[in-house]
Sequence to fold (290 residues):
Amino acid sequence: MDPAYRRANGLLFARGGAMPAKEFGAHQRFLAETLEPAAAHTALEDFLTAWAASPADLPADLVRRVRASAKKAGLGDAEVARIVGTILSATRKKSVPDALLTAAEPILTAHPPADAVTAGLVEVFPEGVTDGGAWLRLLIGSGATGAMEDGRIVPEGGLHHWLGTFVRMYQYALQSGGGVGRQPLPAELLDLIGRWGPRLRAEAAPVTLHTTRHHYQGFDADVLDACLAAGVAVVDPGRPSGCASGARSPAATSPRSPPTPSSAPAWKGPCTRTCCRAGRWAASGGPAPR
Fold:
C-alpha cells in the first residue's frame, strides 16, 4: 500500500472514531518507519488531533507515546506538553482515562499551556467511571483553576455553572456490581470553592448542587457546607433532598423537575447539618427542619 495513501486513510479512520486504541501503536510505528523523525512527529500530531475530535476515547498511554515521538524528533517536554495540552483541550463528551490525566499533570504543571488551551481544558468533563479528581488536579497544576479564580478564564455559562456541572457529573457513579452509588468528591474541590468564593458571589447566581447524571438527587454535605460557608448561594430544590458526607446510599427522589437557577429560591449560609438527620437542609434564618 502506498504510504501516503495509508496515512490519509489513518486520518480518515481517526476522524470517524473508527481507529481502535490497540492500533495506535501500529500506526505510530508505521509513521516512524516511513517518514523522517520530524515529519513523523508532525504526522502523529495530525493523527491525534483528528482522534481527539472523534467519538473515540483517547489511549491511556498517550503521554508516553507523544514523548517517544518528540524524543526521536529531538524535542523535549515543552513539545510534549504542547501536544498533550492541545489534544486534551479539544476532548469532549468521552471517557478520558485517569491514567492519562495523571501522566499529563506534571507535564502541564512544568509547562503551563496558553490561555486558549487552558480554556479548552476546563470544558473537558471526562465521562465514564471517575470522580473527576485526576482531571481537577490537572486543572490545578496547569494553572486553569487559578485563571478561573482571577477571572482570566470564564467557563461556559459562568463559574457557578461549571461548579454545578462538576458536582452533577461526579457525585454519583456506576458501580461494578450494577446500579449507581454515591462517591466522595475530590477533596481539592472544597479548597477551590473557598478560593472561588468572591468570584462566585460576584456572579450573583445560585449554584445547583443536588442534581446528578444518574437520575438520583441529593447533596454532598461537605460541598454544600463549603459553598454556604463561602457565602455562595445554592439552589433550593423545593422538596426534601438527601444529604451525605462522603459515600452514602442514593437519596429518595421526586419526579418533579428541579428548579432552574434563574427562577429557584436559594439557600445562603451559615449552615447546619440538620439535613443529615431530617433529610432537609436548614440554613440560618431559613425554615426549621420538619
Summary: The chain has 13 helices and six strands. Residues 188-290 form one domain.
